[in-house]
Amino acid sequence: MKKTVNIILLIILLTATAFEGIAQKSTLKKLTLADLYKNNVFSTKGINTVRWMKDNKGYSALEFNETAGGRDIVTYDAKIGKREVLVSATSLIPNGKNSPLFVINYAWSADNTKLLIFTNTRKVWRYHTRGDYWVLDLKNGKLSQIGPNMEPARLMFAKFSPDAKKVGFVYKNNIYTQTLETGEIEQLTNDGSNHIINGTFDWVYEEELNCRDGFRWSPDSKRISFWQMDTKGTGTFYLINNIDSIYPKILPLPYPKVGTANSSARIGSITLDNKTITWIDIPGDPRNNYLARMEWANSSDELIIQQLNRQQNTNKVYNADVTTGKAKVVYTEKVETWLDVYDKLYWLDNGKEFTWLSDHTGWLHLNRVSWQNGNIAPITSGDFEVIQLLRIDEKKGWVYYIASPENATQRYLFRSKLDGKGKPEKLSPNNQPGQHSYTISQDCNYAIHTFSNHHTPPRYEVISLPDHKVLRVLEDNKELSNKLKKYNIQEKKFLNIKTDEGLEFDAYMIKPHDFNPEKKYPVIFYIYGEPAGSTVQDRWDYNLWDQLLAQEGYIVISIDNRGTDVPRGREWRKSVYKKIGIIAPHDQAACARKIMEWNFVDSERIGIWGWSGGGSNTLNCMFRYPEIYKTGIAIAFISDQLLYDNIYQERYMNLPENNAEGYREGSPITHAKNLEGNLLLIHGSADDNCHYQSCQMLVNELIKHNKYFTMIDYPMRSHSINERENTTLHLRMTMLNFLKKNLPPVAK
Predict the structure, then answer these.
(1) How far is the C-alpha of 469 from the C-alpha of 604, rounded, in Å?
(2) Rounded Cα–Cα distance for residues 271 and 301 (Å)
(3) Do residues 424 and 414 make contact, with C-beta atoms less than 8 angstroms apart?
(4) Backbone angles phi, psi at 107, to 5 degrees
(5) What is the pTM of this model?
(6) Is 584 a domain residue?
(7) Residue 8 exposed, middle or buried by CB count within 10 Å (0-12, 13-18, 19+)
(8) Fewest CB within 10 angstroms: 134, 408, 485, 593, which?
(9) Could you tell me whether strands 276-279 and 155-160 are parallel, antiparallel, or unpaired per DSSP bridges?
């Protein structure tokens, strides 16, 4: 009898608990598009523009001063957290003005006695690289403008000379200096024009080689070396503004498309005393080779210059003498596929060696290269990859870097001995799976550490190294974490999908909040799939779009196909050479077929969407595998690979004359005639990256084959389609409505 009573009580308890869970679940809020894309309900807090100070004992940061209506620059002692307002916003009020300069960015002089402030900025292509610059002298409190008589918001890339006596900058494609003590301005180049660009770059160098700031002070402050671009002969693409006046305005953009002429690039070195320019003699056609990197070579007499050939499979490293202009090759790397260019180059052993990232062993590793004879020796090795080089502590013999040997979706801090001996040492905590990033002090004793994963918003803290001890939490976003508990946020599950070919792919999946394994659900695949990035990353998702789709009743899945930028070795990444647009949809379709075998997946309701390269791959999946994908949304895509810029497309596909079949087969427009499902095309008419032309050409082809589709263009929106009022909300609303209409989110 007692046993029966206990069983009854247990049943009552379990029933009550179940009802409590149901009640709690029913009270959870629903995500809305307005909260995600208009009201910024789920925005994260961060820390602003941290700079380690010269003594390595503290760092500076921007903090808003509500009383002054501007930003203070404050310093913190790294160890104890003591705060000091080093530069108050009130000290940044120019003569004759009532309010302080609003600091967008700042830089310290080498001795930390002067502060360079960037304000009143303007966007040039993707980034705010134009604006006004001011210098504050901390010794006397003097605030002075750089180029005070020049047009407002037109200066670019201003920076202190190493001796902090001058500031160099670019203005209207010419290079200038201003002496801080006297205010005297000197113009160093005089030929800047619409075609001649000094000290900065054309569109394609910025977009595909990450080159924008195009001049460098010598360590002794006596010279400035710089790039000069000549865009004459480069094809011009015209954007049309139809909405800001009663007559259209034509906006010309020099843009070299696949197989067409590049800008000509050369490097010069200016001697400031007499303003003479010595041009560096780099062999080869300047329109068919890329001067991808240039820095001073640990001295004031030599430059180290990297030259990529047009196919981007050979990188020659030059030692250039700035007094004679002569250059000699000190190291060459050549591969059968393509080479990526890496920025972090450190000098070792008093300039006798420099660091070099290479995947010549099959895995991306750090090496040391002799400046005299080009001999290369490994610093790191093994079946893993150095994802990012962070800092070198030559005094103690360590190199600090990001790697993830066990899980390609995560990122951790490691260090290895500079002599290449011993095993890598993991420093990130084992109890924090996810992604870690670090801003490390010069002496490698401290770092600003950022951590997040798929369910943890970013956490910022000061740590000591190498013990990774937390000294102080700067921001943990607990307010956001607590807010999210009130919503139907579902688990993002990471998994591996093995195809019939025996290949394994990283993926994530989010199920609907009321998931019932006995029912069948529609699936939406989110795809990128190109070598420039990846989607399956165990980090915080800032926009929660996937969660909103899951809330609506969709299973959301994303897969990293071969060729995506993940640390799985050279063969994984570069197997797509000459096969962009071919391998990715093949892998995605192979994974989709396996997923369609799952009992809870409705194989008749498979959708896919992507942006940019993901938009192109969405089209390729829809056109090449219409039996799988029934609904798709392609945003800001390239329909024909010949329409994209030459540096990106030729890097992965080689030149059109060497791979005509690959270009044809990899282009969605080739297969447009196979469309069977529901397709939505979205494009910004002012997209300077993937031109609106690409959308119109595809539309023309679809019409030719009598294929029905839906299309929306966003006038005078760029590649990000986020300019002007209400754009982002409207775009997401359009996407959601299309999906709900054509891929009903109803469990069956």
Answers:
(1) 52
(2) 11
(3) yes
(4) -145, 145
(5) 0.93
(6) yes
(7) exposed
(8) 485
(9) unpaired
For tokens 């640390």, name the residue: 567
The single-letter DSSP state of residue 191 is -
Element (H, E) at 6: helix 2-26
Query: Which value, in Å, is the radius of gyration of the alpha carbons in the chain?
Result: 28
Domain boundary among the residues 153, 187, 221 is at 187
Give the separation between CA 124 and CA 522, rounded to whole angstroms: 41
- Mark which of 159, 187, 215 sits at the end of a domain: 187
Judged against a pLDDT cut of 90, whether residue 127 lies above it is answered with no
For residue 482, how many other CB atoms are within 10 A of its CB?
9
Report the alpha-carbon distance of residue 394 to residue 146 in Å, rounded. 37
- Render pLDDT for 378-403 as a digit per residue (tens, 0 to 9): 999 999 999 999 999 999 999 999 99
Average pLDDT along the chain? 95
> What is the domain-level CATH number for residue 138?
2.130.10.10
Q: Following CA atoms 257, 263, 264, 270 in sequence, which dihedral angle do they give, to the nearest 10 degrees?
A: -150
Contact, 102 vs 93, CB < 8 A? no
CA dihedral 142→147→152→158, nearest 10 degrees, is -90
* Two structure tokens written together for 154: 């037109």
Q: Residue 544's closest CA among 495, 492, 606?
A: 492
Q: What is the CATH number of the domain that holds 708?
A: 3.40.50.1820
The answer to whether 432 touches 407, Cβ cutoff 8 Å, is no
Domain assignment present for 30: no
Scored b (16 or more CB within 10 A) or e, 712-746 reads: ebbebbbbebeeeeebbebbbebbbebbeebbebe
Structure tokens at 743: 């891929």
Please report how many Cα atoms fall inside a 13 Å half-sphere around the Cα of residue 594, on the Cβ side. Answer: 19
Residues contacting 681, CB < 8 A, separation 6+: 634, 637, 695, 698, 699, 709, 710, 711, 712
Condensed to tens digits (0 to 9), the pLDDT of residues 437-475 reads 999 999 999 999 999 999 999 999 999 999 999 999 999
How far apart are alpha carbons 185 and 654 in whole angstroms?
46
The one-character DSSP state at 467 is T
Tell me, what's the pLDDT at 33? 96
Residue 375, exposed/middle/buried by CB under 10 A (0-12, 13-18, 19+)? exposed
Place of tokens 């502590």: 393
Q: Which residues contact 166 (CB under 8 A, 6 or more apart)?
A: 160, 177, 178, 179, 180, 221
Which range marks the domain in which residue 642 is found?
A: 481-742
